[in-house]
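TA notes, week 10

Several of you asked for a full example with nothing omitted. So below is the full record: structure tokens for the whole chain, then the designed sequence directly under it. When grading your own attempts, check the secondary structure regions first.
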């Protein structure tokens, strides 16, 4: 029996899968692919965090089911982080929950609070779970700009005026994945003011709060007076402490939203393995020089990549935060779109990037490069990109010929 399941039918083919298949075939053929495609930190988790995991895992009492909302010590550590970093008070009992990474938290909260047919406002381009978590839950998604300028608020006003039903939630993400756009407190204050007036909840993804490269650490929306009335904020250990595979994140803020996520998670999971939660507590409460080192590493890689791309003729804005560069397609390749460009760059230069179309149709004139290769490998990639750019006309002619022959 062939059955089209409703939720699956609403999901388009995963755009990144085509590039991933090409990478796998190239590697199987012995090619050395330099991979800027996935935001997967390549450095080890700091030693003191790993040691705490090992120490705790040796205690058989930690091998039982854990707590779906997170062990009390970890929720208290999150609250302490918000206090010292943002001067925001978080009640660890009613305003904080531990998640299996921010992605799981976003998806499960969407499931908990969405009624089929709800209208949700999501930036385009955006990290896929921001829209598809709600699409899976049966909502209708309306796109708004990523930019923090006047066009953002014009889109909000238009959405409230023209959407039926009126939007119930807004998703935002700054520092932004994929664009690296940042927001300041004045922007957050205006968002809070607008959304409180119109009874719109705000889900803020702050996963890159500690990966920044200037003297202005990204703020939290919860710093705005009254934000807790409507906002819940998601953070993650993945990038800050090189812990992506550990799957530990958090949600903090509005007690009603935290309560909804707590209730649905009580049906779905027993929480992360207790030793992982204890190690995460040690990370938040322990020395933070490792975070400074991680930040400095990405800054060095950013500078090598952006300066090197400029020398190839590919001008890419230097990101002030995140571990990504959001690169406009080079002039000779603008007409082919991000997916075809990514495939050509992979086949001709052995360099992998993420096509912008994978983050939404408004990202199709860009690709995303993750700062996950060391400086030596990055320079190697830049030499290949230089040759690729120098031979753009020949490469495009060959691609067009192959396209016609394959018809």
């Amino acid at each position: 029996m062939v059955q089209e399941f409703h939720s699956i039918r609403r999901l388009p083919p995963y755009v990144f899968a085509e590039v991933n298949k090409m990478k796998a075939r190239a590697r199987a053929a012995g090619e050395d692919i330099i991979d800027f495609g996935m935001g997967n930190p390549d450095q080890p988790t700091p030693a003191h965090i790993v040691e705490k995991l090992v120490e705790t895992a040796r205690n058989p009492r930690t091998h039982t089911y854990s707590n779906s909302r997170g062990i009390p010590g970890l929720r208290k550590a999150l609250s302490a982080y918000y206090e010292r970093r943002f001067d925001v008070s978080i009640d660890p009992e009613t305003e904080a929950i531990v998640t299996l990474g921010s992605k799981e938290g976003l998806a499960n909260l969407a499931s908990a609070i969405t009624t089929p047919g709800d209208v949700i406002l999501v930036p385009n381009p955006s990290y896929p779970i921001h829209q598809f978590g709600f699409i899976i839950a049966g909502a209708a998604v309306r796109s708004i700009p990523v930019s923090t300028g006047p066009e953002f608020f014009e889109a909000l006003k238009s959405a409230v005026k023209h959407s039926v039903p009126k939007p119930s939630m807004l998703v935002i993400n700054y520092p932004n994945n994929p664009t690296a756009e940042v927001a300041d407190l004045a922007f957050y204050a205006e968002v809070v003011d607008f959304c409180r007036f119109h009874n719109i909840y705000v889900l803020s993804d702050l996963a890159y709060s500690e990966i920044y490269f200037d003297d202005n650490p990204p703020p939290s929306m919860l710093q705005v007076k009254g934000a807790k009335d409507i906002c819940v904020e998601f953070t993650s250990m993945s990038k800050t402490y090189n812990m992506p595979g550990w799957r530990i994140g958090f949600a903090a803020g509005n007690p009603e939203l935290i309560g909804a996520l707590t209730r649905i998670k009580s049906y779905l999971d027993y929480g992360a393995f207790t030793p992982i939660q204890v190690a995460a507590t040690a990370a938040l409460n322990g020395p933070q020089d490792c975070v400074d080192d991680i930040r400095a590493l990405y800054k060095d890689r950013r500078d090598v990549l952006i300066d090197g791309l400029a020398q190839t003729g590919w001008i890419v804005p230097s990101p002030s935060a995140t571990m990504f560069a959001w690169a406009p397609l080079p002039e000779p390749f603008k007409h082919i779109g991000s997916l075809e460009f990514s495939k050509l760059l992979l086949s001709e230069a052995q360099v992998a990037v993420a096509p912008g179309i994978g983050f939404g149709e408004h990202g199709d004139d860009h690709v995303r490069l993750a700062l996950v290769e060391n400086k030596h490998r990055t320079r190697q990639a830049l030499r290949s990109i230089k040759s690729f750019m120098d031979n753009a006309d020949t490469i495009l002619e060959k691609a067009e010929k192959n396209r016609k022959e394959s018809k």
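Residues 340 and 355 are 8 Å apart (CA to CA). Use that as a sanity check on your answer.
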